[in-house]
Amino acid sequence: MKITRNETQWQTLIQNQQTSGLTISDYCQQHQLPSSSFYAFKKKLGLTSNSFVRAKVTQQIEFIEEQQPSITLTVGKANVSFPAATPATYLAQILRELS
User: Fold this and answer.
1) Is the CB of residue 17 less than 8 Å from the CB of residue 27?
2) CA distance 93 to 86
3) Least confident of 30-44, 47-61, 71-85
């Protein structure tokens, strides 16, 4: 039996899908909706967004930035640190200037 829905009902269905955490395919299957009709009404109602993809966070992790190794030069009371990837020629030039 074919069910006819008005625009308000489709708008509610589309909004419910967006907050459900389900993909459109899964939501349509679960609610026995034709996915082609879902997409057609989503476009017709102007609820289609081509540039934004809704993502669902499935696991949160804490990111701790590791400190990169560095080279530290101590001259008198001054300490100067450089990233470990600093070219040796640059460090040699600094040492020449300090001596």
Assistant:
1) yes
2) 12
3) 47-61
Integer-rounded Cα radius of gyration of the chain = 30
Cβ atoms of 45 and 7 within 8 Å: the answer is yes
Its pTM stands at 0.47
Q: What is the pLDDT of residues 20-34, one digit of tens each?
A: 888 999 999 999 899
The secondary structure of 81-97, three-state, reads EEECCCCHHHHHHHHHH
Query: What per-residue string of b and e applies to 71-92 under the rule 16 or more CB within 10 Å gives b?
Result: eeeeeeeeeeeeeeeeeeeeee
- Contact, 85 vs 72, CB < 8 A? no
